[in-house]
């Protein structure tokens, strides 16, 4: 395992990486102090430095919604924000939705309506739906579809995702899709 | 067949709680002490060789541990055999970091490993690679004339001919012919490929890998690194979708393990979304069809030739053309397919490989024939309905396709369709109704499983299969609970671990039939032992009973004929002093079946198209599926729903575009590569048509992973024609194609 180019680097100065900074995040109600490089996204801060891997990385470019979390109550793509920019913020992730053993109504509805297959987009879908409900503008299934379109589900569970959200918002799913006789 | 209880009942996923709470861990999510992070550098050219890799700058970044390249790497096996995985096509597989050859754009050329992910990513941007370019050839369309018949000639049969199709075509009262195209598509599961290699010591490694086959990954990485297979353990308890992309071991696996072994510490490698486009893909395909029929619609000539693409180093081919001989009666047939070799990575299976492409072309051509013959498209299918597999010349073990057509049409309201194109509208939108047939193989492959019953009434069921989302954990649990008469909560299903009993990769819709048959056999063995113990008890009420005379339910073994004669399982185990009963079993397909085994569907689609803007919405779909016995209607319906959504993508959105100047896929992110989002998907009804099949396997199941995408794109394309009177034969049907004259 020779390294022919290794001679070239002897004597080279180390290229430094950015100096670490301290960031305080209130994650799921718990104050977490982190010493991280400023180029760390909120998503990587959660996944890599707080071991909160419930929040998923699907694209790292704000194109899929898998990384959706609630910051100060609003849904955002955590891959598109640096952790340092959220110093002092309240962050709610999928791990913070259930109350002890009792699942959040959306979590329960997702299970009941089979609103996922592989489950990888699911934490983002559920956090996004929680944000959507808090926004309070949705009246119809079509609006749910539109306002949940930032969360891609490649397993294609969309009709069941809409049904689950409707069940939480309106008490029942008005959507007529899904398996007959379910 | 097991008694009714849990099987066939809509059952919520047993892993649902883990998935909705974020505790289900995927390959990149295991936190291990001392973990280092790898970042892959990808080739910028499509063909040639690496002349120099400048790593000095990257190595100088504080926190970089090492950079692996073809010049600096541990020893790798030097025979093709070592790199051939369980599902490798004929050829010489890619050897990551093996030598200086560049075979396709995006090929991995270096792995930067650092203390932190961000440092590895930054340092990777400082690696400079110099190449000696060679002219690449990546233009499928332009190379089409150079297509050759593949080496892979046993499966599928490359050509079939019967009768005299050319002459019959000339004589036919009604004729259509057309050329249909589908572009390259990428699977894009939401979870990027990743592997976390946990270093234990020099002779042992455990890897959390994203794969559809833990044992396939284990064998591959052990063989390539020349380690004994039993020193490598691969785990994949949760997989964030794969759709075929995880059938073959992907390069993150080998890179993570080689780095971990060289550095003697744990290493994780995660691909970026862009790098997901350097893996296998659905090959672009072109179909030429010529169909001739009598004036009553009976087919007299069917010719279908298809061209697919592959890499220069492997011949990947799937059956595009044989499906029509399974669906439609015809005496004069010519089928053939060929491959174009390009400077691209090898394609790989993507949901219903071959069938989805073939059915798109066949079912659009049948639609065209229906218009030409002035027949309802559904009626044309019924006129030509085939009760026998005309290639193997044998009947089907079951085929409830007629019932799919009937129930699907009824649910959809097909009889209200005005046959005239452009005849239906809703405000300023044109309305179109189209239909198509779906078909997929109902395969079974050898598999094994283990069942363990303990005296406290708990059951563990295990097989090295995967659950990439279809609900394998759940039906395994249902099956064991049903057969051993215990509540679902008492059963633990284990999978995604290479140390468990042997199982094939999860794919091809064969997991439930294959692994299910093995679990069935293992549970039967436990039942047999329990019955034996119960019969040894003094004055046993079950004396003389055969296994088929009893049923296991509610913790009891009961005589079917006289339910008062029962023994509790706990008592039987206590009497026999059995603390645990453990049985392993294998199952294999019946090699001398006299039947062909297929799954069928009838797909109906409604589209609404803005007349001025050409915007297409799929407002309604009905998919009626006959797939034998459905173990869990809830998760099975989700599989169909998801595949229909994939079919919507195939029809209207998905296309990987190549920049021919660089020989590179350029739509390498989820903004440029369009997949359906929530607003693209409206009502989808899934119907499971009852289909009893006692011949196929002990459970009577056929599998539902692929069937939902087969026929979906054709039904939508046919609906678009019905709405607009314009036939777009090249997928995806985007609005520019609709508006073009
Ligand atoms: S990972 Fe943030 S949007 Fe995809
Ligand atoms: S459940 Fe797999 S991506 Fe949504």
The percent range for helix content of chain B is 10-25%
CATH topology of the largest domain in chain A: Ubiquitin-like (UB roll)
Mean pLDDT of chain B: 96
Note the run of SSEs of chain A as H and E.
HEEHEEEHHHHE
Beta content of chain A: 5-15%
CATH class of the largest domain in chain B: Alpha Beta
Under CATH, the homologous superfamily of the largest domain in chain B reads Aldehyde oxidase/xanthine dehydrogenase, molybdopterin binding domain
CATH topology of the largest domain in chain B: Aldehyde Oxidoreductase, domain 4
Brief digest:
With 182 residues, chain A is α+β, with helices and mostly antiparallel strands.
Verbal overview:
The complex is a heterodimer of chains A (182) and B (741). With 182 residues, chain A is of the alpha+beta class. Chain A has two domains: 21-96, Roll (Ubiquitin-like (UB roll)); 105-175, [2Fe-2S]-binding domain (DNA polymerase, domain 1). Chain A has six helices and six strands; from the N terminus they run H-E-E-H-E-E-E-H-H-H-H-E. Chain A has a five-stranded mixed beta sheet, with helices on both faces. In chain A, helix 3 crosses helix 6. The longest helix of chain A is centred in the last third of the chain and has 14 residues, at 122-135. Chain A is elongated, with a radius of gyration of 20 Å. Chain B has 741 residues and is an alpha+beta fold. Chain B has three domains: 16-23 and 444-587, Aldehyde oxidase/xanthine dehydrogenase, molybdopterin binding domain (Aldehyde Oxidoreductase, domain 4); 36-135 and 207-260, Aldehyde Oxidoreductase, domain 3 (Alpha-Beta Complex), CATH 3.90.1170.50; 161-165 and 281-443 and 594-739, 2-Layer Sandwich (Aldehyde Oxidoreductase, domain 4). Chain B is built from 18 helices and 31 strands. Chain B has a seven-stranded mixed beta sheet with strand order 3-5-1-12-9-10-11. In chain B, strands 7-15-14-13-8 form a five-stranded mixed beta sheet, sandwiched between helices. In chain B, strand 20 and strand 21 form a beta hairpin. The longest helix of chain B has 26 residues, at 511-536. Chain B is globular, with a radius of gyration of 27 Å. The mean pLDDT of chain B is 96. At the A-B interface, helix 1, helix 2, helix 3, helix 4 and helix 5 of A face helix 1, helix 2, helix 4, helix 16 and strand 31 of B. The complex binds FE2/S2 (inorganic) cluster (FES) (2 copies). One FE2/S2 (inorganic) cluster sits between chains A (116-122, 153-155, 157) and B (190, 241, 469).
